[in-house]
Amino acid sequence: MKRANILVVFLTLFVLNGSAQTKKPVSAEEAKMNTFISNLMAKMTVDEKIGQLNLPSSGDITTGQANSSDISKKIKAGQVGGLFNIKGVDKIKAVQKIAVENSRMKIPLLFGMDVIHGYNTVFPIPLGVSCIWDMATVQKSARIAAIEASASGINWTFSPMVDISRDPRWGRISEGSGEDAYLGSQIAAAMVKGYQGKLQANNEILACVKHYALYGAAEAGRDYNTTDMSKVRMYNEYFPPYKAAVDAGAASIMASFNEVDGIPATGSKWLMTDVLRNQWGFKGFVVTDYTGIPEMIAHGMGDLQTVSALALNAGVDMDMVGEGFLSTLKKSLAEKKVGIAQIDRACRLVLQAKYKLGLFTDPYKFCNAERAEKEVFSPANRQVAREVATESFVLLKNNNNLLPLKKSGTIGLIGPLADNTANMYGTWSVAALFDKSVTVLQGLKNALGNDAKILTARGANFLADSAMEQRYVNIHNPTYKRDPRTEAEMIKEALEVAKKSDVIVATIGEGSEFTGESSSVTDIQIPETQKNLLKALAKTGKPVVLVLFTGRPLALNWEQQNIPAILNVWFPGSEAGNAIADVLFGDVNPSGKLSATFPQNVGQVPLYYAHKNTGRPLAEGKWFEKFRSNYLDVSNDPLYPFGFGLSYTTFSYSDVKLSSNTLTKGKSITASVTLSNTGKYDGKEVVQLYIQDLVGSITRPVKELKGFQKINLKAGESKTVTFNITENDLKFYNSAFKFVAEPGDFKVFIGTNSRDVKEASFTLK
């Protein structure tokens, strides 16, 4: 090969792997930061540099005991870079004081917490928030969470969780934004912007994007399990939300527990360096998940020294709880298993985060007691939480317009979630004020006053088996109490209430900890004892409204066939009862749309709208046909498709109109529909745009979400909704991992969900 040709090949490869990025000029502020950190690091010992990479859990240190705690000894010795699971201005200030006054280098600490969907003011679980389909609202929820957390001294949140998941058996599906890469990417960026702002004010905190990568695709939906998929699928279907968060300026990334391509993510240089830093240009720091480094021992990657070196060399910068870095890196450095350059890189990145937060200027920046009194769990924040919750609810069924209910007569409020303060919040509500949640009963009372009568009965426990229920319920919250009566006794009481009622509101479903970490299941139906209650209520002949609490898509075949109205409220948060009442009585018209497909049964899982065709596809709407890709016992169809959600009003869509049937590279075309509110109520509709690439160099999904708009229309009003389609909307990663748009024919779909759409065609020249 000639020298010139070799040079061309080398440069081409250099550009393709993303390493040949043109360096931007360093700003004066960045230069100032670099000089400050370089000067600081020049004075640090190797032990102190390694100490910055250590993130232990403090436990919630009691005020006044911080100086005598075991963790304080490590802080004084320069062996701690940050702490998590401690909250409150007084406590955090006391611990920070140890770092900046009693350690040799006086380097301030980071204080992190799992502020997942709110702090004291709790918003709906992330899966619920993702059903809002309005990024301004999503960002506002993160902004308020940051304001409240920072007012309590916290400056780093382990959120957003952006893992794509198509398996409702996986408990942590409740913490993410559903099944779709495009919607997930929009939400990831909005959350990062909400938490971080410009990282200047004392109410802007570091975001930590998790779990990098592919955690939501764990085999069998079992937590911490292996993930195995092609790189083409990674780049096109699972990576986009992580990259979107990086592009939005995320300050930190958390490594996931699962393995990827045979290597635990925590030790994967391909993930942490090649993709994250070299291809995506990530400039922040990477932290492990809880004990992620020592867990690689059980994966079979070596002893603690070996796996700690593996993680550092892969590009991990901070060790959460494992203390593998703290206890082994100096030895590995002496044995040349790691280099000082790797330790310096990690230390510098952690120090940069502290500098950008302004902690070197004011280590007590986030310790303002006056803010905590005024800005946490304020009436204004709770009002926003109430509004956000109403936007997240998805109306799954409403036969004969049973909803909205009238504020009159007698309402039978029945079910284990009717008056349950413990289970309004959902999983990962670590700062929730459990005794201050608004239950469904309280919310209905607030809405009705003396206009209607409410009768109540518990009707059922979550599960019939008390030992099993103890595994499921929120064990960290003592306010939940199990009813000792038998199932028959509880149903009898419920039926007596039903007889006296004009309408039954059945509050049924999962408890808060049915989903979340280490909460995987193989059965995604409503628990049997609650379903027995629901069946008994249905037999009364009284109209039944199912208010469904859940942290995952459930299999609701019987409920869909037999219950006239189903309102999915997920876990609504602090203002649960008020928000539910707002929607039940029509003060707010529900507008949520599903971000994850609901299957008919667990045997269909994984079931998602953006699937590929087979060589023997079953025609849409058909079932059964021999020698086609289908089941003998159930159709391929979901119970509720991605993007589905009803309203108290009705909407009609005109045919799709394209500005041109030809799209030229570098240009754009518009696709538009006329949306009309044809019902009796004002309402919001999420207009969804999907595109199908009909012929590609690799197989392409049957459709992919590429745009959406939430439109508010008064009854009888119409509006033209327009989408701009560019070449960029058609791009995907091909088998060579190039992000390309290939010329050819495309279909564009616009409609109310992924199934019910109007279509048109165009060609990319």
From TrEMBL:
EC number(s) recorded for this UniProt protein: 3.2.1.21
Gene Ontology terms for molecular function: beta-glucosidase activity
Alphabetized SMART domains for the sequence: Fn3_like
Keyword terms of this UniProt record: Glycosidase, Hydrolase, Periplasm, Signal
Family matches, as InterPro entries: Cellulose_Degrad_GH3, Fn3-like, GH, Glyco_hydro_3_AS, Glyco_hydro_3_C, Glyco_hydro_3_C_sf, Glyco_hydro_3_N, Glyco_hydro_3_N_sf
Compartment(s) of residence: Periplasm
Top EC class for this record: hydrolase
GO biological process assignments: glucan catabolic process
PANTHER family: LYSOSOMAL BETA GLUCOSIDASE, PERIPLASMIC BETA-GLUCOSIDASE-RELATED
Name the record gives this protein: Periplasmic beta-glucosidase
Species in which this protein is naturally found: Pedobacter alluvionis
Source lineage: Bacteria, Pseudomonadati, Bacteroidota, Sphingobacteriia, Sphingobacteriales
